[in-house]
Description:
76% of the residues lie in helices and 0% in strands. Helix 4 runs antiparallel to helix 5 (128-146). The longest helix is centred in the middle third of the chain and has 61 residues, at 62-122. It is mainly alpha-helical.
Amino acid sequence: MxxxxxxxxxxxxxxxxxxxxxxxxxxxxxIRLLFVLLFFIPPAVGFWLYLAGIIFIPEEGTKNKDKxxxxxxxRTAHNAKNFILETSSAFKKTMEESINRRRVLGGILxxxxxxxxxxxxxxxxxxxxxxxxxxxxxxxxxxxxxxK
Length: 148
């Protein structure tokens, strides 16, 4: 299947005429002459057609560049997906570690609260009842939050 490209080898200005000639299998000088003749038709039709050819006709070899760009985009998307999955996994691990630390802290506060409360029962005037209740309350709250 033939494709219309601006020729790189047999170009004079931008390769439009030689690309068209190659596509239709004619002499490039005939196409160049046609553009020159069309240039003298007001309002410089040949110029505008040649300019449109520069803009809309791709340069020879750009089809492979498009494939390379597509492969690079695909590779970048794959890398981004892997990065997101790794980051998500690390975040989950960090959250699990945080929950475990809360459980340990809650357990320690629960034990401290019980120690202070037991101390309160064995001594008459001590602020340990207040601290015991505080530690018990915070420990129970931490343990309740991590069990959800």
